[in-house]
Amino acid sequence: MDTQTSYRLIAKDLTRSLERVTQQPLVERESAYYLEKIGDIKSVEEFIGDSRIFRFAMKAFGLEDMTYAKGLMTKMLNEGIDDRESLANSLTDSRYKDFVDTFNFARYGATTTIFEVTKQPVVDKYVRQTLEEDAGSRNEGVRLALYFERKAPDIDSYYDILADPALAEVVRTALGYPDSIAQADIDKQVAMFRERFDLEDFKDPEKLQQFIGRFTALWELSNPSSGAQSSIAALFAQPIESGISTSLLLTLNQLKR
To answer: Which terminal residue of the chain has fewer beta carbons within 10 Å of its beta carbon, N or C?
Structure first.
């Protein structure tokens, strides 16, 4: 399936898609362990020291590739976010601040993990991350589309997009900009984005889906799915259904107009 069709199959019934992920044996096992043990964690040292708990939490916030950086994460958790000059507050990547805000040992100490925000909501984030990773293992464009769908409504600034490589890639692709513009002056990039779209559009579900539809269509052109035909001759030689989907062709036609 092409990128657009794959994305729509997951997004049209997201609740069911998430339920399927929840039922995966590994997800079930790790989620159960986390919910059973997190309430017993009373300090940053215990939190970091339980590798399964820590890895689970890091993945839930999209930080799995930084699980090895225990010293850095220990520093962030000990500093908290109440001080505007703290490390988590100084980073442009908001995932770290969200992580520290959830596991706010600096503010709440041993009572941190009694709050509901550290329990099922973290599991829900873990499941969503797993859904996006599974989709990305088959088609990176689908993972980017799902990620953008999740994050875009909360974007407050064009600079937030540039601070997140995944968001920036979606926007550049949807607008037809080459990756090379990422090397341009940041303020110029912001001006280019501002001319093309309004951030408020992302808070409108219909407009957000239109933007994602544009992204998935253009992504497919640059990154043909393995099942899609790679040449014009092949498209004429076989029915359209065996290559680019009808929905994708309709979207491309709308983009052309």
So the answer is: C
